[in-house]
Amino acid sequence: MAAGSAPGWALGVLGVVYLFLKLDFISCSQEIYGAMNGNVTFYVSKFHPSTEIIWKKEKNKVVEWDIQSGLEAFQSFKDRVYLDIGSGNLTITRLTKSDEGLYELESPGVRNKSEFHLKVIAPPPSPSTFCSLSDDGNITLTCEIMEAGYDIDGNLLQYSWECPPTVQCHRGLSPSEAYVLKKSDLSQNVQCVVSNPLFRTSASISLSTCVPEDNTRHRYVLFAILPAVICGLLFLKCFLGRHSQ
């Protein structure tokens, strides 16, 4: 009896899940990124023209429209919002950090919640690059944002390294570090790239500045010509000695 009811129980569960999805009872907050001082638009799906539209941020009204009274924006959003009453889409202009938060649409024109979590981000400043030479001759590269006052969100900021084919790069202990093997071409530049979901900036470092001059490729040129110079001097000494006798 119990075994025979198992298929029916499973079908019942699947039916409930399908019903929830079909009727849009399940809603998720969308993560939206907006550029500092820029504009952002919240696009509403499955919206039907209605007689009333209300947008809220953290339960406080941002803008309200109804067919009787028209449009009204509230608090700091005055003169900074545009509401498309046909689609329900909301556009906010001249974004600031205080605009971050959870936005929600309330209207008879939507059956499920339309929620958007806004994150306002600025372009990262150009990073500074540093290097150090280890005892085994390999190079450690470090990339950092040094500008004071920049709001660094560790979850959004990403570091990467771009190395020429003749340079052997390996990721370091942290994403802002990289290792370059000593047998690499030290005449090349390596680039550090810092990015977030909207912006990308970079800085390069010349590997030749990371090692003492006698550790660069020039030393091999010197070693190559040094025997020839010594032989030339010995030959000249012998030649002059013969003519002096």
Describe this structure in words.
The chain crosses the membrane at residues 220-240. The protein has 245 residues and is of the alpha+beta class. It is built from 2 helices and 16 strands. The protein has helices at 2-22, 218-244; strands at 29-35, 40-42, 52-57, 60-66, 70-73, 81-83, 90-92, 101-106, 114-121, 128-133, 139-144, 158-162, 169-171, 177-180, 189-195, 200-206. Mean pLDDT is 82; it is low at 16-26 and 215-224.
List keywords for this structure.
16 strands; four-stranded antiparallel beta sheet; 245 residues; 20% helix; six-stranded mixed beta sheet; alpha+beta
Overall shape: rod-shaped
Q: Report the order of strands and helices.
A: HEEEEEEEEEEEEEEEEH
Q: Please count the beta strands (DSSP E, at least 2 residues each).
A: 16
Sheet-strand content, in percent, reads 25-35%
- The helix content, as a percent range, equals 10-25%
- Low-confidence runs of at least 5 consecutive residues: 16-26, 215-224
Main β-sheet, spatial strand arrangement:
1-9-8-3-4-5
End-to-end distance, in Å? Answer: 125 Å
Supply the number of helical segments.
2
The residue-averaged pLDDT reads 82
Main pleated-sheet profile: 6 strands, mixed
Radius of gyration: 33 Å
From the helix content, strand content and strand pairing, which structural class follows?
alpha+beta
